[in-house]
Design brief:
single chain, 279 residues, alpha/beta, 6-stranded parallel β-sheet, 10 strands
Length: 279
């Protein structure tokens, strides 16, 4: 990685794209701080509190870049988050050095309490794997139709595994859960913030998700994650690879072969999940 930054200068990183894009590029705050810069983060997706665990001086949320960042003149430079890898001249060896998002012990307890409240397992002390599932993302995203997994197919593949399932869907497609006939706990009312979502994820054993921000949050926390990726895969999911350079080998990538055909993907997800929870 090249060493061309401005030590001692204040840099404002401005979140852009989707929430997942912010999470992907938040890792680079470590590189900036190592080069002596004072890093501040402005999130476009309400991630400010979650990102306080990063080596940043301050975090804030915004909607309109120039009008809602009142202290914008206090910084020496600003940079769009998705340009950090370019300006840092990052290569593959710079992409993953371990989990970079985390929660406090208090938040972990909150996550445990939420799961205990909703668990389908009568004996909360039973050693049954806890699995979070998400099958669709923000419908306002241009390609969301292509990345939405058929929940019925997914559930038919997963339901025979001895796991305690929790839905990580929040705003959309909650009606799909009717097909599971109560066997998947609906956490939508508890997913009130990114910090609470991260707290819940911290207490799950595996995450099974389509290509959404949940995939990136779980992977950034180094949680075992199975990501179901559409034919037109996002750039961090390399074609023909069942892993990614951007996260650890605890992330398992399943590529769709044909548009809107998810049966094989769901079957592969079940096979991988069965292997992950067999112990």
């Amino acid at each position: 990685m090249a060493r061309t930054t401005a030590p001692g200068k204040k840099l404002l990183v401005v979140g852009e794209g989707g929430a997942g894009d912010e999470i992907i590029n938040a890792r680079f705050t470590h590189h900036l701080v190592q080069r002596g810069m004072e890093v501040h983060w402005a999130s476009a997706h309400g991630l400010a509190n979650l990102f306080s665990c990063l080596p940043v001086k301050t975090t804030q949320n915004y909607k309109n870049f120039t009008s809602e960042i009142s202290n914008i003149r206090d910084f020496d430079y600003w940079c769009p988050a998705m340009s950090l890898a370019v300006y840092l001249d990052a290569d593959v060896s710079d992409l993953w050095s371990g989990p970079y998002l985390s929660v406090t012990e208090r938040q972990k307890q909150l996550g445990a309490d939420i799961l205990a409240e909703h668990s389908q397992i009568a004996n909360i002390n039973a050693k049954i794997p806890r699995v979070g599932i998400r099958w669709s993302g923000n419908p306002h995203y241009d390609h969301d139709l292509h990345r939405t997994v058929d929940f019925n197919l997914l559930w038919d593949s997963l339901k025979n595994l001895a796991c305690d399932y929790y839905s990580l869907q929040r705003d959309t497609n909650l009606q799909d859960l009717d097909y599971a006939q109560g066997a998947v706990s609906d956490l939508s009312e508890d997913l009130t913030s990114w910090e609470t979502t991260a707290a819940i994820i911290s207490q799950l054993d595996v995450i099974v998700t389509s290509c959404t921000s949940i995939a990136h949050l779980a992977a950034a926390m180094d949680k075992p994650t199975i990501v179901m990726v559409p034919v037109l895969a996002y750039y961090i999911w390399p074609e023909n690879l069942n892993s990614t350079y951007w996260y650890s080998d605890r992330v398992h990538v399943i590529h769709q072969n044909s548009p809107r055909e998810w049966q094989d993907v769901a079957a592969q997800a079940a096979t991988i999940l069965a292997d992950l929870v067999k112990d």
